[in-house]
Amino acid sequence: MMTIYIDVIYSSLKLPFSQMKSFNTEHNPSAVESGNRFDDDGREKRTGTFMTASAHIITAVIGSGVLSLSWAIAQLGWLAGTVILVTFASINYYTSTMLADCYRSPDTAPGTRNYTYMDVVRAYLGGRKVQLCGLAQYGSLVGVTIGYTITASISLVAIGKANCFHDKGHDAKCSLSNYPSMAAFGIVQLMLSQIPNFHKLSFLSIIATVMSFCYASIGIGLSITTVTSGKVGKTGLTGTVVGVDVTASEKMWRSFQAVGDIAFSYAYSIVLVEIQDTLKSTPPENKVMKKASLAGVSTTTVFYILCGGIGYAAFGNKAPGDLLTDFGFYEPYWLIDFANACIVLHLIAAYQVFAQPIFQFVEKKCNKKWPESIFITSEHSMNIPLIGKCTINLFRLLWRTCYVVLTTVVAMIFPFFNAILGLLGALAFWPLTVYFPVAMHIEQAKVKKYSLRWIGLKLLVSLCLIVSLLATIGSIVGLITSVKAYKPFNN
Question: Any bridge partners for residue 242, and if so which?
Answer without folding.
Answer: 246
